[in-house]
Design goal:
This protein is of the alpha/beta class and 573 residues long. The chain has 22 helices and 12 strands. The protein has a 6-stranded mixed sheet with strand order 6-9-10-3-11-12, with helices on both faces. Strands 2-1-4-5 form a 4-stranded antiparallel sheet, covered by helices on one side. The protein binds adenosine-5'-triphosphate (ATP). InterPro entries: AAA+_ATPase, ABC1_TM_dom, ABC1_TM_sf, ABC_transporter-like_ATP-bd, ABC_transporter-like_CS, P-loop_NTPase, Type_1_exporter.
């Protein structure tokens, strides 16, 4: 909570100004009953019309001052709350960007989205309400009690008796509310997750006729959200009657004793009216409090969820041993030195004792059954994850000793799943190097064998790519992803099964074009035909290297490789 609200600090002066205006409004509110009492006793009862008019005008003037203070307060409150939420959202986004994949995996995407949208909005609303009306409620209660004592200490005592009970009761309800609303926010996460999965897989849902099933799944999470929200909001149902009961009892006592005092002539009628007025204000403020508690409890739950993100340190940077920098022996050279790796939280190693070397400008094909650990191997090079044992050397330097940004700058990566962004085709190719000249873009797209297809689009390179590239074929998306990686001109180019959607001819042209590349290449593939063209092949099985060498060597030494080659030869034949 403290961590989250520290983002108010830059706006403390506007917040303080808003609070001062709110205090002015409150002051006017509290003075009004005093003036009313005066008008009743000295004006109405004494039949002094001039006095009524005079003090009536004062009342009106004060009301106008309160109105002005309210309007200006609203302006500054909303400025503070909006600026706070803008900064907080950016801070959360930046922190998420710095997450390692291991940390990222701890949160669902839907939950992160909810935290950055819904949770920030909850806290922003409460900040606005705090500056505008929230603090008014307790201050109005305290102010009313003080003023009641000023008017008539004996009668004011009856108002004080109930206040502590109400206060403790409200604190108890806030604690309950935080638990309940924490649960509600988790339900919102789940709802978003189901929605996100459904929308992402909408084609699959239609193809498998899973519409009805998906509707039931959505209905289930939506109804759980409804039930928990109703449960949380039910707190209100308990708060209001208890509040009203205690306050009405105090009011009755005031009236009963007040009547007695009027009869004995010890108290003027105006005092009773003023005290009743303060009692009503206290009841109103407590009711407002009850309403605010709901928002506060919800915001507290949200703030805790955001603090969870803000408290996570950047794990990758922490383990960097930057002082040892002094690399660049061989352009693009890569060495795996007895590398083992287990995913964070996992107990079985995904890679065990993997060793190999790829010389500058060489092409290594990585083969293996699905789940063998090929993608994992690639992801260790740019340090998406840290190795559990052993070392990975890029250009003779342990990746842990590289500056992370520099390391990633020398690596071009094409993931298994081609991901495109909303924008033009040119924007997508330039994504990794926004300053690249059009000539460089063209060179990359020609090499990736996508230039001709782009030219065929009516708007060429300005063609808008739909969300996730919906308006492009799988092969087009793969080639655009390759062009994007080529444009970066990394020293090491990693292609994770990135040509699976290409036809034989296009793939051959692509490899021919890529053979001119200066970069060292790591190509994950299932095809012997692709592997054959590599300088060396690394065959892994269940995370272990089972064969390493050229195509011819492996045919001689590895029965598994030979089996795969034979099976594919049969298919090709
Ligand atoms: N993020 C992750 N967290 C935990 N385990 C993972 C993660 N990603 C992959 N694994 C596990 O690691 C193993 C290797 O996965 P990897 O994706 O590296 O295989 P692969 O050889 O690339 O498979 P494929 O050819 O099917 O893409 C698998 O058993 C998989 O379940």
């Amino acid at each position: 909570m403290k961590e989250v609200f520290s983002y108010v600090k830059p706006y403390k002066w506007t917040a303080i100004f808003a609070l001062c205006l709110m205090l002015l409004e409150l002051f006017v509110e509290l003075v009004q009953p005093l003036i009313m009492a005066k008008i009743i006793d000295e004006g109405v009862r004494a039949q002094n019309q001039g006095m009524v008019l005079q003090w009536g005008a004062v009342l009106l003037g004060l009301s106008f001052v309160a109105f002005l203070a309210g309007v200006i307060n609203s302006y500054f409150s909303s400025h503070t709350a909006q600026s706070f939420s803008y900064d907080l959202r950016n801070a959360l986004f930046d922190r998420i960007q710095s997450f390692t994949l291991a940390t990222y995996q701890k949160f669902s995407t839907a939950s992160l989205i909810t935290r950055l949208t819904n949770d920030v909005t909850q806290v922003q609303t409460v900040l606005f309400m705090s500056l505008r009306i929230m603090l008014r409620a307790p201050l109005a209660v305290i102010g009313s009690i003080i003023m009641a004592f000023v008017v008539n200490p004996k009668l004011a005592l009856f108002l004080v008796i109930g206040a502590p009970i109400i206060f403790i009761f409200l604190l108890f309800m806030v604690a309950k509310g935080v638990t309940y609303f924490g649960r509600v926010q988790k339900r919102v996460d789940r709802l978003n997750r189901v929605l996100q999965e459904n929308l992402q897989a909408i084609r699959l849902v239609k193809a498998y006729l899973r519409g009805a099933y998906e509707a039931t799944r959505f209905d289930e999470v939506a109804s759980r959200l409804k039930v928990d929200t109703v449960k949380a909001l039910r707190i209100m149902e308990y708060i209001m009657p208890v509040l009203l009961f205690i306050m009405n009892m105090s009011l009755l006592a005031v009236l009963w004793f007040g009547t007695k005092q009027i009869a004995t002539g010890t108290t003027p009628l105006g005092d009773i009216v003023a005290i009743v007025n303060y009692a009503m204000r206290m009841t109103g403020s407590f009711s407002m409090f009850a309403f605010i508690i709901i928002f506060y409890a919800r915001a507290k739950a949200s703030a805790e969820r955001m603090a969870e993100i803000l408290s996570i340190e950047n794990e990758v940077e922490d383990t960097s041993l930057l002082e040892e920098v002094g690399h660049a022996t061989q352009y693009g050279e890569l060495t795996f030195d007895h590398v083992s790796f287990t995913y964070p939280g996992g107990d079985v190693p995904v890679l065990s004792d993997v060793s190999f070397q790829v010389k500058s400008g060489e092409k290594l094909a990585i083969m293996g059954a699905t789940g063998a650990g090929k993608s994992t191997l690639l992801q260790l090079i740019p340090r998406f994850y840290e190795v559990t044992q052993g070392r990975i050397l890029v250009e003779g330097q342990d990746v842990q000793h590289w500056d992370l940004q520099e390391l990633r700058e020398v690596i071009g990566y094409v993931p298994q799943q081609s991901l495109l962004f909303t924008g033009s085709i040119a924007d997508n190719v330039r994504w990794g190097d926004t300053q690249a000249e059009m000539d460089a873009v063209l060179q990359a797209t020609m090499q990736a064998q996508i230039h001709a297809s782009v030219e065929d689009f009516p708007n060429g390179y300005d063609t808008k790519v739909g969300q996730k590239g919906v308006n492009l074929s799988g092969g087009q998306k793969q080639r655009l992803s390759i062009a994007r990686a080529l444009l970066r001109q990394g020293h090491i180019l990693m292609l994770d099964d990135s040509t699976s959607a290409l036809d034989v001819k296009t793939e051959q042209s692509l490899w021919a074009a890529l053979s001119e590349e200066k970069a060292t290449m790591l190509v994950v593939t299932q095809k012997i035909r692709t592997a054959k063209g590599a300088d060396r092949i690394l065959l892994i099985d269940a995370g272990k290297v089972v064969a390493y060498g050229t195509h011819e060597e492996l045919l001689e030494t590895s029965s598994l490789y030979k089996k795969i080659a034979i099976s594919q030869q049969e298919v090709e034949d």
